[in-house]
Amino acid sequence: MQNTISALAQEAQDLAAGRVIPILPVSTETAAEGEVARALQICNACRYCEGFCAVFPAMTRRLEFGKADVHYLANLCHNCGACLHACQYAPPHEFAINIPKAMAEVRGQTYADYAWPPALGRLYQRNGLTLSLALAAGLSLFLVLAVALQGGLGRLWGADLGANFYNLFPHNLLVGIFAPVFLFVVLALAMGVRRFWKDVKPATGGVDVGTPAAAEAAHDVLRLKYLDGGHGEGCHNEDDAYTLSRRRFHHLTFYGFMLCFAATALATVYHYVFGWAAPYEFPSLPKLLGAVGGTSLMLGTAGLWRLNRRRHPLHGDARQKPMDLGFIALLFLVAASGMALWLGRGTPALALLLCLHLGAVIALFATLPYGKFAHGVFRTASLLRHNTEKRQPSPIGLGAD
Ligand code: SF4
Ligand code: SF4
């Protein structure tokens, strides 16, 4: 330990004097993990970015970066870009430090590596914009054909359904389709994050999460604390200017999604507990939650799409962009088709709109465990470990926290 601390001090002196520092060998396996470990060795000697986010205080508790440390820190990173724009060793410097990009590459790899069942991990590479939209279109078409075969074209356009969707797709049929898909999504994500947790827990102190740590992690997640740049002015998107747009559009998307989910859950309670059949109109609570949530989701995803298209090319892993855009597009499609369905009630287009909306919802849920949605789950797990770890004494007797 003493030798490692001396080596670290020597590196800091070399850096201060502008000399190239030797990079310690690391016990990681992939090129992406090796690059994070290499960059963090330099950051650990520099420490200029200590106040930006949770990654740097967590880094200072380590002198070496093994595979589990790298996986943990990569998922703790919120890709805010602050440490790229602040870094004196960023490209074109010969050290070529680009923490946001290196972390993003490892993050993408961890989603696939920890996926459950493992054989489906490769879906992350294929889960792009085209596939997402094609899946939604294919499922919608399937439903359209099913309705047409059952009741002819007259059932698809202009049939007198009132505003009751169950006249077209019976309630039990919808439950039979969505319940297994939803349960599989929960199981796949839970198993994936369990595998991640098993690797990362020993590398982050090994103790169980306590109530204060869980409360602080929940606060960090719900406020998206680490998209504020450490000073509250926000993070970066297309250049080195600070912006709160990414945080706000994330909030609109996240809370919009949660409100829509709450509307669906509440409607289920109405149906099974009180025997109140859908559709629910204003001012019922499911309708209020759904209308506010749908609007928020549309605004949030439209904003995130625009930001993503303008994002600085050095911020992330360009190979993951199709996956990001596919997820954003499906969320938008679900919200927009849901709103159209509500506005189109009582019109001849109701059946077609319902097929489109259900197709989009099934496509979204089918791709949830193998797409961008995973970043929220893995990042929450990392924040839980971070808030637990930082309450323990530093294992090296040094550190910023
Ligand atoms: S990103 Fe650059 S400036 Fe920030 S701690 Fe690392 S080496 Fe230092
Ligand atoms: S990109 Fe932002 S969140 Fe990620 S390590 Fe750098 S400063 Fe921290």
UniProtKB/TrEMBL annotation:
Keywords noted in UniProt: Membrane, Transmembrane, Transmembrane helix
SUPFAM superfamilies in UniProt: 4Fe-4S ferredoxins (SSF54862), Respiratory nitrate reductase 1 gamma chain (SSF103501)
Transmembrane parts of this sequence: 129-153, 173-193, 252-273, 285-305, 325-343, 349-370
Stored InterPro entries: Citrate_utilization_prot_B, NarG-like_sf
UniProt name for this protein: Tricarballylate utilization 4Fe-4S protein TcuB
Domain of life: Bacteria
Species name: Delftia lacustris
